[in-house]
Design a protein that fits this description.
With 124 residues, the chain is an all-alpha fold. It contains 5 helices and no strands. Helix 4 packs antiparallel against helix 5. The protein is elongated.
């Protein structure tokens, strides 16, 4: 069985006209360098949809990971050759939405108590 698989990989597939055409192509839609960032847009779109969520349902670890992923990969996408601008744009969007969600959560958790105390002192 291993010999059959090895024969398929080395003789049939890797030397087929289709494989050589795909391997030597400069078309971006064939490569993972196009599809991976394109599917990452789903995370950013979902995070934008979560802007309407109450802040009690926002997760610190999730938003920290989204923001850090966006920051790290936006830097990486400008260092690699060729530069991947699709990855850069989705990473900036991920960092932006993650940081915005974190700011909402921090404002609610840290600064809303002061407003509630001030409102309670004015009422009573």
């Amino acid at each position: 069985m291993a010999n059959t698989w090895q024969f398929f990989c080395t003789k049939l597939w890797c030397t087929s006209k289709y494989h050589l055409r795909v391997r030597d192509s400069d078309l971006a839609f064939i490569a993972v360098h196009f599809w991976a960032p394109t599917f990452k847009w789903g995370i950013s779109i979902a995070n934008v949809a979560d802007f309407a969520k109450p802040t009690e349902k926002i997760s610190y670890p999730q938003q920290v990971v989204i923001a850090c992923t966006g920051i790290i990969w936006s830097r990486y996408s400008t260092v690699i050759t060729p530069k991947n601008w699709n990855l850069f744009s989705v990473s900036v969007a991920m960092a932006g939405t993650g940081l915005y969600q974190l700011s909402r959560k921090i404002r609610e958790d840290c600064f809303s108590d002061e407003k509630e105390v001030a409102a309670a002192s004015l009422e009573g």
